[in-house]
Design goal:
This protein is α/β, with parallel strands linked by helices. The protein has ten helices and eleven strands.
């Protein structure tokens, strides 16, 4: 079944129920990649009981995850919460993750490809379907890709109403370095993929090249070279919220301080950890999600002031 998009070929793959929510799955073929087999799955989640206007928000999952990080088959999770509060929720899945099908050049994927080739078409499609500029939210690698897209894509920088970065990390160290042995890191150039399920990191695999690319950027940064994401944060001028989920409060403060916009806030997890000792990162997101939703509500009141271009 074909959708009514004027931008590029889009297929409506499924219309289902997630609990009491509507879940429409689209498959995008933007035609930007040199890989003709590439398709990107984007799931739209709405609450049919909501009678008012809906404002779009796009949630990017972390590494080794898929859309189920945000929404369970029963309609629970952060995406379900936002949909019930009247948001038009969009859940893209990274190449080869979840409902995004396997494609020919999956093993060659790296950060700049994912951010510069995939995110702008998702932005255009969401704006076309909703009629509004979206707010973006990314966690882990999703936050890094979001920052990369905002730094390097004029479309995203101009027509993003707000950005939320959860566990954005730092330019000199990625958490997987502490989990992989030295031998495993040395073997990355000879491997195609890194499994998330074998280490309880998540249900998805990541290309080994993706981690090699991240480590290479970190080595260059430690030697005084510019970082393609973190050294460009000052160009991100939309309202921003940076969230920590664990012990990276200093990283969050540093990341937020480098953003160029005047309207930026931080949400630090230490106050939740002090109240509830022993909480894991997965426990912390439900604890802070109402604060994130309240921030999104504030941004939603200003969305109407962002006119969309006639030609997307």
């Amino acid at each position: 079944m074909q959708s009514s998009s004027r931008l590029f070929p889009v297929s409506l793959m499924a219309t289902e129920l997630a609990g009491d929510l509507h879940e429409d799955v689209y498959q995008l073929n933007p035609g930007i990649s040199t890989d003709p087999t590439l398709r990107i799955a984007v799931t739209r989640v709405t609450d049919p009981a909501w009678e008012g206007d809906r404002s779009p928000v796009v949630l990017l999952h972390a590494e080794f995850k898929n859309r189920r990080q945000w929404l369970t088959p029963q309609g629970e999770g952060f995406a379900g919460l936002l949909a019930r509060f009247g948001f038009d929720v969009w859940l893209p899945e990274m190449r080869g993750h979840g409902l995004s099908p396997a494609h020919r050049d999956w093993a060659l994927n790296h950060c700049s490809l994912l951010a510069e080739e995939d995110l702008p078409p998702v932005q255009r499609f969401v704006m076309e379907q909703s009629g509004k500029a979206p707010v973006w939210l990314g966690r882990g690698l999703g936050g890094r890709l979001l920052a990369h897209g905002l730094v390097h894509s004029r479309l995203m920088r101009r027509y993003t109403c707000g950005a939320v970065f959860i566990e954005p990390g730092n330019p000199s160290r990625h958490w997987t370095e502490d989990e992989l042995t030295l031998l495993e890191r040395w073997a990355l150039p000879r491997r195609e993929r890194v499994s998330g399920s074998q280490r309880d990191w998540g249900t998805e695999d990541e290309p080994a090249r993706l981690l090699r690319d991240i480590y290479r950027q970190q080595r260059r940064y430690r030697r005084g070279k510019k970082h393609p994401v973190y050294d460009g944060l000052r160009t991100i001028r939309c309202p921003a919220l940076v969230v920590s989920l664990g012990d990276e409060d200093d990283e969050v403060r540093n990341f937020s301080g480098q953003l160029g916009g005047q309207s930026r806030q931080t949400l630090l997890s230490h106050r939740y950890l002090n109240d509830r000792p022993g909480m894991s990162r997965d426990d912390l997101l439900p604890a802070v999600q109402n604060d994130i939703r309240a921030w999104l509500d504030e941004v939603r009141t200003r969305q109407q002031a962002t006119p969309l271009p006639e030609a997307l």
